[in-house]
């Protein structure tokens, strides 16, 4: 029997934005006995994905294939891949852990993560596919000054990717240390090395298929767990809730909103970050270029929304299942804590382990190994997508357009993107090791916030507002970026938790500043564009009509390339 | 690359119809989604007790179906958009592209 006698460190929660990090115990982690089932199944996953990478590498000869899989991914496949990008190890472990701790509050998070998708469908997906080729900077700079806007978009992308990547690497290292019994640094090096292999050799095609396989495995595993829980209660939700209310120390309070949302402004600001940040994440936006046309892009968000919604409903059931089946089983509890704090707080490894213990409770050792392997695979797939998005910003936006003025030859551009991937991978490993002991919980929240405050306003206005000018986008976009970073640094999550200043001294009172930084960006872009009478501004406005026709009809859009 | 001859497309009544109907439909659906979500958040912030109202005699509260309904509404709204886009917009776009040749 595998014992998980460890405490999940705060960093494993890093993969979940903002206040969700409140869940779980914050003490440092120790290693556990090597988990052979999990390692064996993970090795099987790695072999399979390396095989796919080999297959993909033979098809990845051109830049179009490297960045966008040649536009040859179907809407359904892309839908699963997008869902995979979103169903991170943290959505799975973090949200089910949050439900386990406080019941209803966990649902509030799932909802926030999901509602960004309809907005992406209605406003972003099709115009993006019609106007862009490989990166969202293609769209933002379509009729604006190429050099300044590419630099802005590349900065927005790289900063978003960097924070997201650090959080994922540290979370990965800690999680794998606990699940597999590997040293932290070994875990980080494995993740970084596999990510480099997938992306440099297989490009977008391999990255997409790794994501698809992992998403299917995760959906299968989560469905199995939820069904097993429901089966246990004769498929009666009422019976499951009744048992949970009976055994949970908070009793009926788990059936209604608790302490998670107390300040409405804070809650709305977090909502803004989650919704509009989703519409500005470079690794997500990039997925829309992997399908053949706008129609397929639309279809892919439809499937993605369905899978993500279904997945969040599963995590809700899994969380309640853990309350009833894990917190009542002494095998999963720390006896010393049960007496002092009750069974919920006494879960071995902290609340993040709720879903993992439940896997053990309903499926035994083998299924526990399967779920652990899927959690590892999930991290790997998400970091690969991030690395590809970062590498594209460097090679396609900075190198090919800014440095070479759009006249780079394809071979050189691809070489740069591969070098960039390797550098990003090595950097991620180094940063992952440097940040091991730091509290990086704020980083994913920050990534969403920057995406909502820099990438999203520039992208949206470039597509829909005739009056946008290069100067407005440039100044407003950078203002949004800096405002987001500064406000996060001054917020309680960094000022008090990371810097160790006394509680209540943070100059910025809310956990997530997106409401303010995004509004600032929009207002600045609007005002500066309005006042801009430069020659460039006249060109920018004059280009709108032709762009809008392509945006609406897709005439002139890049199609799928032949393989 | 911008569209050649975009001026004539702009004058095509089908294009005018496409832009008008699709934009208003998209922004309306987006507004509905935001209203549902932020309505839910405000309910949580200001009326948590309402969400805690039991349904019937058991422990199930009204907040559970409401929360799940928000999740389902996101999917349904996307579905409505996709159905309408498939039924109307794709045809219009095809005609516009044909007529522009």
UniProtKB/TrEMBL annotation, chain A:
Its main location: membrane. The chain crosses the membrane at residues 38-57, 78-101, 107-125, 151-172, 184-205, 212-233, 265-289, 301-323, 367-395, 416-435, 441-461, 473-494, 514-531. GO terms for molecular function: acetate transmembrane transporter activity; symporter activity. The keyword Nucleotidyltransferase does not apply. It holds the Pfam family SSF. It is a multi-pass membrane protein. Residues 1-22 form the signal peptide. It comes from the Bacteria. CDD domains: SLC5sbd_u4. Gene3D superfamilies: Sodium/glucose cotransporter. It is found in: Cell inner membrane. One of its GO terms (cellular component) is plasma membrane. Keywords: Cell inner membrane, Cell membrane, Ion transport, Membrane, Signal, Sodium, Sodium transport, Symport, Transmembrane, Transmembrane helix, Transport. PANTHER family: CATION_ACETATE SYMPORTER ACTP, SODIUM/PROLINE SYMPORTER-RELATED. Belongs to the sodium:solute symporter (SSF) (TC 2.A.21) family. This is Cation/acetate symporter ActP. The lineage of its organism: Bacteria, Pseudomonadati, Pseudomonadota, Alphaproteobacteria, Hyphomicrobiales.
TrEMBL record, chain B:
GO terms for cellular component: plasma membrane. InterPro entries: DUF485 (IPR007436), Inner_membrane_assoc (IPR052959). The keyword Transmembrane applies. Pfam families: DUF485 (PF04341). Keywords: Membrane, Transmembrane, Transmembrane helix. The chain crosses the membrane at residues 24-47, 59-83. PANTHER family: INNER MEMBRANE PROTEIN YJCH. This is DUF485 domain-containing protein. The lineage of its organism: Bacteria, Pseudomonadati, Pseudomonadota, Alphaproteobacteria, Hyphomicrobiales.
